[in-house]
Specification:
By secondary structure, the protein is α/β, with parallel strands linked by helices. The protein contains 24 helices and 14 strands. The strands form three sheets. It has a seven-stranded parallel sheet. Helix 17 links the parallel strand 8 and strand 9. Helix 1 runs antiparallel to helix 2, helix 1 packs across helix 7 and helix 8 crosses helix 9. The longest helix is centred in the first third of the chain and has 18 residues. It is globular and about 85 Å long. Bound molecules: zinc ion (2 copies). The site of one zinc ion has 4 residues, from loops.
């Protein structure tokens, strides 16, 4: 039989959803009042005579009838109906501290955001503060609560747990007399982390006692591995090894399954042999060392056997900031601040690509404001030469695949990045057609965040990667590797395909503040997985090379 608690919760949810949907506020209030009254009744409503329910203070006729419905059927039809009309992500938002129904209604109806991931991303892009009732403080609170809530799912972005893993490693090595070597997903630089792993020569009992003392109860234990999980659902695992097998355990736990299966097959590998270093494992099988980041596909083993691994791009190889926003659209820093910070980071140039005019939610640039921004850029360039700001735009790819300005305005930019920001709910056919049209536009130079995915939050729209890559190759369009740790879009798994077609990749931070420049590193880490070298990355071009690139691209326009 349905309990008072459940009845009260149903009313309370109904009231909130009615507010979110903008239904009659008096009705919503009466259900909220009913929830409150039911919550205070000690006697189970199911044991009360039906008539007496109507005489409870705070229960009107309509709420009384709903209670009887719930007592008889176990459910509340009007609630089920309204849930049906509410996207699941909107329902989830009710669990986030700091946003009530009114704010959720604004988020849904005005910002057109339907998932927590999108909302989090909007906070990062400073987008909420443009709306009434959302101050900077509210935005920050919402951001933190979402991050906390999403953390409870037990999967994390690499960037979210990187510092934590470093600090824990420091704590382990200073507190315990054992060796710890990072392995697993973190060592492989995967974009999503399910567990943080170390190989250790430590003693299991001592490890368990220590981990318990810092809030990590034991989750699982066998003779190879002990796992722990803390309150934030972070999983930490230790792979048990001794002096003799330390390197082979490290090797095996730093490979994907595909890779390891192929390795065992092609090398007949003897894991009981003693390898003084991990690299000795590779030399024992006439193979050049394969970095953990690249131990993903089986094919890399054959390349390594032929000594054909190219040197990987490193964070220091990024010499230009491509794709960043300023206060002209939704960025947090002025052009001058963005330029100064880029110079301080040793960058040779900055490509400013604020949002285009259709991106009203992001304060996109009207045609008049484009001209004004260009004037300001000219002034800054005079002041800061030889450092250079390039005039760019992140043009929305409109619903029909066209770009956001007439040709004569597009012609005023040094470079155009084309990205999809709206109408993301597309089937593959529609998405392909939309992207293809944008790629074939002579003004498009870079395809921004290819699928629009937000890791752990929103799947990208479906596309035919091969088709899109081929089109980029045919039209000389560069594919962005958006380095924001929640995007990392193009997925690194497709980069090799693009490189085979001689498509340039560009590791771009999509920075909305000067701090955003730091994200380039996350792009580099996944690019390493794909075997990218610096010659294949546009943001590694020096100023001179980049000027030439811009010049060549502009030849497409005539
Ligand atoms: Zn964008
Ligand atoms: Zn952007």
């Amino acid at each position: 039989m349905i309990t008072n608690d459940e009845i009260s919760n149903n009313f309370s949810l109904l009231a909130k959803l009615m507010d979110i949907h903008g239904e009659n506020p008096f009705k919503a209030k009466s259900y909220a009042a009913a929830a409150f009254s039911v919550d205070k009744i000690a006697t189970p409503l199911s044991e009360m005579p039906p008539n007496s329910i109507f005489s409870i203070k705070g229960i009107g006729e309509s709420a009384g009838n709903r209670i009887i419905e719930m007592l008889q059927t176990g459910k509340l039809q009007i609630l089920e109906d309204i849930i049906q009309q509410t996207p699941p992500g909107i329902l989830e938002m009710l669990k986030i501290k700091g946003i009530g129904p009114k704010k959720i209604a604004t988020i849904w109806k005005e910002l057109e955001i339907e998932t927590l991931g999108e909302l989090l991303y909007a906070c990062n892009e400073n987008r909420l503060t443009l709306y009434k009732g959302f101050g900077e403080k509210t935005q920050q609170n919402i951001k933190e609560s979402i991050e906390f809530y999403m953390g409870t799912m037990g999967r994390y972005l690499f960037q979210q747990v990187e510092n934590f893993s470093k600090e824990l490693e420091k704590l382990l090595t200073t507190s315990l007399p054992f060796s710890f070597q990072l392995t697993g997903e973190m060592r492989r630089q995967l974009e999503i982390i399910d567990s943080i792993d170390w190989v250790t020569n430590g003693n299991a009992d001592q490890l368990i006692a220590f981990m318990n003392s810092i809030g990590f109860p034991l989750k699982e234990q066998n003779s190879f591995k002990i796992s722990f999980k803390n309150e934030q659902n972070i999983t930490v695992q230790f792979w048990l090894a001794n002096q003799e097998n330390f390197q082979s355990v490290l090797f095996e736990t730093s490979c994907s399954e595909d890779f390891l299966t192929e390795w065992i097959k092609t090398t007949q590998w003897d894991k009981s042999a003693i390898y003084p270093l991990e690299d000795s494992i590779f030399s024992a099988y006439d193979c050049c060392p394969i970095p953990p980041a690249q131990r993903e596909s089986a094919s890399i083993i054959h390349l390594a056997k032929q000594n054909e691994l190219s040197s990987l791009i490193t964070p220091d190889d990024i010499v230009g900031i491509i794709h960043s926003h300023s206060t002209w659209s939704d960025g947090g820093n002025s052009l001058t601040e963005m330029a100064k910070a880029a110079i301080e980071k040793g960058m040779q140039y900055l490509v400013i690509s604020d949002h285009s005019k259709s991106a009203f939610y992001a304060n996109g640039l009207s045609i008049e404001r484009v001209a004004a921004q260009h004037q300001e850029i000219n002034q800054i360039n005079q002041e800061f030469a030889p450092f250079k700001i390039f005039k760019s735009i992140e043009s929305d790819i409109l619903n029909d695949g066209s770009l956001d300005y007439p040709d004569e305005i597009l012609a005023s930019f040094d470079l155009v990045i084309a990205s999809v920001h709206s109408n993301l709910k597309m089937n593959e056919e529609k998405a392909n057609a939309r992207l293809l049209k944008a790629i074939e536009n002579n003004y498009t130079n870079i395809l921004g965040h290819m699928t629009g995915r937000l890791l752990l939050s929103r799947a990208g729209y479906p596309i035919n990667h091969e088709l899109i890559i081929d089109a980029c190759a045919a039209n000389g369009v560069v594919i962005e590797l958006n380095a924001h740790p929640r995007r990392l879009d193009i997925d690194w798994r497709w980069i090799e395909k693009a490189l085979q077609k001689n498509v340039l990749i560009s590791i771009n931070p999509d920075a909305h503040t000067i701090d955003g420049y730091e994200d380039c590193r996350f792009g580099v880490l996944v690019a390493q997985k794909a075997g990218l070298n610096k010659q294949q990355n546009l943001s590694s071009f020096n100023l001179n090379q980049f000027e030439q690139f811009v010049h060549q691209q502009q030849l497409k326009r005539s």
